[in-house]
Amino acid sequence: MICKNCGTEFEGNYCNQCGQKSTVGRLTWKSVWDNLLHGIFHVDNTFVKTTRTLVVHPDRLLSDYFEGRRKGYMAPVPLLAVWCVILLFFGHIKGLPGSISTIETSDTHNWIVEHYTLLTIATVPFMVLAVKIAFRKAGSARYNWVEYLLGCCYLSVLYILLSLVVMPLGWVLDASYYQAYECGNQVLALVLTYWAAYSFFPDKFWITLWRTLWAVVLYLLFLGVIGVALALPFVD
Asked: Which residues contact 153 (CB under 8 A, 6 or more apart)?
């Protein structure tokens, strides 16, 4: 078989010189759609497969990725970026009049929303530092900083998925339920954090819960210190 792209003679489903598929037909609407999905979701069905595995078996996904079984998985940073864009899209949807989604927010909040992707990726290193400290006695030293960085990117995707699941409530609930809605989100995020921690560092319930809470406190402290440091130049 002769490759239509580079002219190399080869056998099999892919050219061993340039990697193009052996079955390349005429351009059709289906092929254009497939190429569009391929460009958005990186490669074939890796976006769906990675998201599904992350939700059902986060420990399996991280173990596979860390141990080199990465074929079929979407890389953490592109996956996080795609889900950030999806969250921003749905975050601009306004629900019923007087619902939580119609509450006027401050300029600071609006700026954070507009730069959500950048801020999410920028705060991941502080999440890594908090996890490294809180779970140092649970075996955290066996992974390096890059592995933790990528692992926390996957964890950030879980938080986004949680936000997307509860977001429709903000479209229908009255604005008076805003505080309860926010508290509920925080509790669910804590439960999700505990589940991810237990999946990767299995231990007794109270020990894992304590380490999870300690990691959350450290993360918030780091963000608070950075926030104050960035705000000081603008304080008269």
From this structure: 76, 77, 79, 80, 121, 124
Between 184 and 108, the more confident residue is 184
Residues 6+ apart with CB under 8 A from 6: 15, 17, 18, 20
180-193 per-residue burial string, b: 16 or more CB within 10 A, e: under 16 = ebeeebeeebeebb
Q: Rg of the Cα trace of the chain?
A: 22
Indicate whether 201 belongs to any domain.
yes
| pTM for this predicted structure | 0.74
> First-to-last CA distance in the chain?
73
Q: Is residue 230 part of a domain?
A: yes
Per-residue pLDDT reduced to its tens digit, 20-72: 777 766 656 666 666 655 655 544 578 888 899 988 888 788 888 888 888 78
The whole domain housing 172 covers 77-234
Domain count, the chain: 1
Residue 61 CB: number of other CB atoms within 10 A? 23
Within a domain: 143 = yes
Cα distances (Å, whole numbers) of residue 223 to 44, 78, 186, 208, 215: 37, 23, 16, 23, 12
Handedness of CA 211, 215, 217, 221 (dihedral sign): positive
